[in-house]
Amino acid sequence: MKNFKIVLVLFCLTYHFQGDAQGVTGSVEYIKELTSQWKGERFDDGRPKVTDALLSRMKNIQIEEAWGFLRSRGYNNQYEGEWEIIHPEGVMTGRVVTAQYMPLRPDYQRLIKLKGAEEKRDTIGGSNSWPIQQLVPGDVYVADGYGRIIDGTLIGSNLGNAIYANSQNGVIFNGGVRDVAGLLDIEGFNGWHKGADPSYLQEEMLSAINVPIRIGRATVLPGDVVLANRHGTIFIPSYLASELVLSSEIVGLRDIFGFQRLREKKYTAGQIDTKWTDEINKDFENWLKSYPDSKLPMTRKELNDYMDSRKN
After folding, report:
1. What secondary structure letter does DSSP report for 247?
2. What residue numbers bound the domain in which 71 lies?
3. What residue numbers does the annotated binding site for Mg(2+) cover?
4. pLDDT for 108-153, tens place per residue?
5. Which of 218, 170, 173 is CA-nearest to residue 194?
6. What residues form the annotated binding site?
């Protein structure tokens, strides 16, 4: 009986370590744990599947509005600025695929290659192509290259074309890029990076895909939604994306209403620029009822449900 118990314990330990064996890519179960507050549809890799329609609407949201909303929910470390942008006039939104890079260490790199082979990845070329292989339309490739630019260029025009072919989107790199002239020629592609250099990627290795990473002063999880424009990048937990967009759109409607009433001289600037009275709130609610559906950024049902929730 004693020997049986010892064998059973050893079996359980072996099963535990095999079951928890770490690969290059975060497992489906791990990503679901990281994003447990998301209740909607998911991709096969476990990431939340925020809708394309919501991503499109998010392009109209100002960084400051998103920043303020997240801080009101306790998310104080989701913004990063000071970027070089391939197309500064562009706005990009998407679902995040993360990648972590580190200074090269030979023994660790050998293990990463072995783990990559187990995941059926191409071990002949550079591992910086691995995250690109799992991009799907609407994804944004977000990589922490620890700010390295010289010999830290994570992509050039070849990989840029591959990224756009898979995602129809772009990249956000806490690191460098090369061949900016070639990247500029990829129609629809955009990128936020820390600098450009003609050097190739050297003495740097991929260590993980779809795990939590740090981008400057922001903590980023796989499946986050990113909003990027000339004013910076902000990473939004997937479960808050819909509420953030809707509340920001309501702020936009309040601005339209306020500007109209100021032009009409119905209220003073002081009345509009401070906490609204019950009279102004009621006027705004009536104004919304007559506002054309075709001009609403959301559906009429979404608007009504939001306004009703504010009354409760």
Report:
1. H
2. 52-236
3. 179
4. 999 999 999 999 998 887 899 999 999 999 999 999 999 999 999 9
5. 173
6. 156-159, 178-179
